[in-house]
Amino acid sequence: MELTGEMLIGARAVRGTAGTVHGRDPRTGDALAPSYGLGDAADVAAAASLAAAAFGVYRSTTGEQRGALLDTIAAGLEEIAEPLVARVAAETGIAEPRVRGELARTTGQLRMFGALAREGSWISARIDPALPERTPLPRPDLRQRRVPTGPVAVFGASNFPLAFSVAGGDTASALAVGCPVVVKAHSAHPGTSELVGRVIQGAVAALGLPEGVFSLLFGDGESLGVALVRDPRIRAVGFTGSRSGGTALTAAAAARPVPIPVFAEMSSVNPVFLLPGALATRGAELGAAFVTSLTTGAGQLCTNPGLLFAIEGPGLDEFLGAAAAAIAEVDAAAMLTAGIRAAYDDGVSRLREHPLVTEVAAGPGSPGLSTPHLFTTTADAFLADRGLQDEVFGAAALVVRVTGFAEVIDALEGQLTATVHAAAEDLDLAASLLPSLELLAGRIVFDGWPTGVEVGSATVHGGPYPSTSDGRSTSVGTAAIERFLRPVAYQNLPPALRPPGLDDENTLGLRRTVDGVPR
Amino acid sequence: MELTGEMLIGARAVRGTAGTVHGRDPRTGDALAPSYGLGDAADVAAAASLAAAAFGVYRSTTGEQRGALLDTIAAGLEEIAEPLVARVAAETGIAEPRVRGELARTTGQLRMFGALAREGSWISARIDPALPERTPLPRPDLRQRRVPTGPVAVFGASNFPLAFSVAGGDTASALAVGCPVVVKAHSAHPGTSELVGRVIQGAVAALGLPEGVFSLLFGDGESLGVALVRDPRIRAVGFTGSRSGGTALTAAAAARPVPIPVFAEMSSVNPVFLLPGALATRGAELGAAFVTSLTTGAGQLCTNPGLLFAIEGPGLDEFLGAAAAAIAEVDAAAMLTAGIRAAYDDGVSRLREHPLVTEVAAGPGSPGLSTPHLFTTTADAFLADRGLQDEVFGAAALVVRVTGFAEVIDALEGQLTATVHAAAEDLDLAASLLPSLELLAGRIVFDGWPTGVEVGSATVHGGPYPSTSDGRSTSVGTAAIERFLRPVAYQNLPPALRPPGLDDENTLGLRRTVDGVPR
């Protein structure tokens, strides 16, 4: 597949005229061909208009049709696996084995949502049959289902060019429930975006679906991205990126004449709590394992463990010593973009120059690459300076030496994850922390590390503000569809007009709630 | 029970010092004793602080305990039914039989949420058991449940002093799932609010629950109400009232350092579509039935049918004639407050003076009371003036004479309900309208009237903006609990620490999803 540098607006390929951007090899800064033309407000309007026009047909497709679309996209990505993996690696500096893993996750995710679309119980059918004899008033027949909200804008993420981008989780879950999608590609991997976008465009055409089911735009966030969020035909937004980007889109969405929900994943330092028994019995082992998690993907994961709270006492020195030794062995690594590397360097400098922070270890440096850093500080210093819980996106972490956890937990902002390392003798302490951690984070990890998000039915990848803009939802796993649904009730609808899934016979074989009782 | 004019802050009764308000007989404007002292920022902080302190204990109570609280409140309201009904009628002008009906709905609602709390499957447990042998990576054990978001602020509504106020739907659903509640009473029925609030305060004490589970504040929306929404300990807001009030609270919530969701029900004209067959076969009958719905509660219902679209042709004149005749027979009625009556009079004058609107009928007037009004206009006039779809809160309605529905539906804002009257020969036309109506409204009513909201499992009382601030939720029925929940996942949690409902044995006997399959 030849890359053209064009946007995909419905069935067309369109060269944007509002400037250009190139993918770049992050190791060298060299531009990768082709150049990508950036879109403008007219392109946003064209894509949104097609999406709105497609919505009526697409939301009425069967689960089988939407499942076939998602399966076809997954198969199409596998067909171009070799050029796709090569382009991802070239544009992002992510090592090929990780890219292959992310591709498998992405196709697995697409098929998982395809199966969900086919199974169909996610409409959450509720049926309260009429009670004509009820007194003082008869009860009408009431049937409820969930319907898709409308066209969804999805913003690609820099750090997961496949799993959180053009054919990522938000796109898959929106398509599964009947929402057309307009993707704004991340400018750091335009070639990857085009490759994936053409697979989706081809699948939409192959299945005879309306062209507006999918469009792909290139452009900058502040102009094209905000225009997309403001377009009246867009009804929900999925975003993964920076806190400033997420809050700007959220503000734009709230200021619309008809506000819409924004599901923005923004920042998280993923606190880790090292309990005394765990430190005493396996401090060194934990230190080494921590560094593996910290440095995966050059630390550029949303769930990277950037903040640790360790009880002063036996094993803490062993933990820090083993972590320092492991960090010294980690090769310097390319970061996703020069901008991300510069921000990482700034964040490291800020910690290094902080009068109450001590640098414990740093990996071997190399020009143009990033190297992991480990710092420590005291509980008093941490509590005195809220800036010490700001995310440093990359493989930098701060260990706070504490005598207890209550005060520091109260000082923390909302997080995607919270992790506890506990030995058998720590279980009472761990149990006492759980209620606070439930309020702090969307996922609580025991005796593991937060990186590596399992994609399943029970997954929560989301959390209280500011880790996400709306902690009532997840961006990973089957529960992600909740973002793009709203309930509708039908009162005394003639049987012939009942929508699929709300018939008396339950011909679709769904799990439903009848008269308040799950069936 | 002697009314004292005090706020209820946890277990205390506190006289507010920031001004006073009286309940008033809306028929005479006479003040009703006692005067109510209005609260200030310190009272808000005191109530929110107690709520936050109570949250930890309250959210850990069993479903049985919360069910007992809700049942005790229901029984307590029944015990004071006579003085309560008398006070509601005195403060609101609502006729006693309607007040008794609303009381029954309120106690029924409390018990329904009590049963839901006890049954417990609303935590939506999802369990993906560990797969230690999976390749390339083992799967961790992941268990998800939904937890309460935190203390909820509830704003009482003027038009449902019981069912949407101190012990109304938002309070009941928040309490059912473990959220403490701080109510801001509506100033139009302070005595009713105190009576109900003391029942809840007493129930909290009788069951040995932390006092902060419930507080009741008096004050004006712009100062005390906004302060309550801005309090960092409040995590969600339920509101039923005006569009200006709802948008002000939504803006205040979005501007917080940590934004929170606001579920505001704001305005709806509840369009009714009169299809040609229905008009031709039963125009006169529909006209009379329409007036019954229009004038129920002096038209002061959120679901009042204020806008009708009727196909030009046989039966429309009969519809209008029967409606006019029925309106002429309707007694003038007291409205809830002098302010509401003034706004109604303004709205009626605006329609009456509109050059393209014709007055068809008005009920017999009486000083200080309101009388129903019926107007007609053309499709062109309706499409040319968006102001013609503004809600006139009260028993005024506008019939738009149309030749088709598509264009006017596209011009409509989001609604709580949409109603269709169709004869057998209209079914194809009705079917063609359904998809648009699903996008327009939260509840679609066939061959009935939108007033009279059934409280059940399948109920949706909510709808696209601006009928509510968040059309993904309902304020009535068991699905209302969704607003106050967020998901949390637990990864590799030691079995001894698993929260109730997430154990392997399912000792609570919940409906759960295991490995993606509902059980």
TrEMBL record, chains A, B:
GO molecular function: oxidoreductase activity, acting on the aldehyde or oxo group of donors, NAD or NADP as acceptor
Cited InterPro entries: Ald_DH/histidinol_DH, Ald_DH_C, Ald_DH_N, Aldehyde_DH_dom, Aldehyde_DH_Superfamily, ALDH_KGSADH
Stored Gene3D superfamilies: Aldehyde Dehydrogenase, Chain A, domain 1, Aldehyde Dehydrogenase, Chain A, domain 2
Listed name of the protein: NAD-dependent aldehyde dehydrogenase
Aldehyde dehydrogenase domain ranges (all copies): 20-412
Protein keywords: Oxidoreductase
Transmembrane segments: none
The UniProt record lists the keyword Ligase: no
